[in-house]
Design a protein that fits this description.
alpha/beta, 32% helix, 3 strands
Length: 106
Amino acid sequence: LVAETCNEKNIKIKALFLLDPTYLSRPFPGKIPDNVEKVICFRSNDPAWLVGGKISKENLENENTAIKNINIGGSHVGLPNNEKLIEIIEREIKESSLRFAYKVNK
C-alpha cells in the first residue's frame, strides 16, 4: 500500500479509498497503517473469496481509524468506472478540503 510508504515518511493520510481490497484478506493479510485517519472500502457484488471481505478493526494498526464499508454493486472490474463510487470519492475529497480550508482560515 502507498499508505505504508507514507507512514515510513511520517505523512498522514486523511482518507484511503479501497476497491475490493484482496490485500487485506489473503492468507497473510496486511494491515492498514496507523497514519490513515479514515478508510472507505467499496465492494462489488462478486464473491468475497474473489475480491476480499469488509474492512474491520482487525485490519487496522490503529483501532481509532474510522471505517466505512460500502457495497457499491456491479462487478469487480467495473468498480473504477462506477458513477456512484466516483461521486462518493469526489464528495469525500471536497468535504475534507473544505474542513482543511476552514481550519486554516479560522
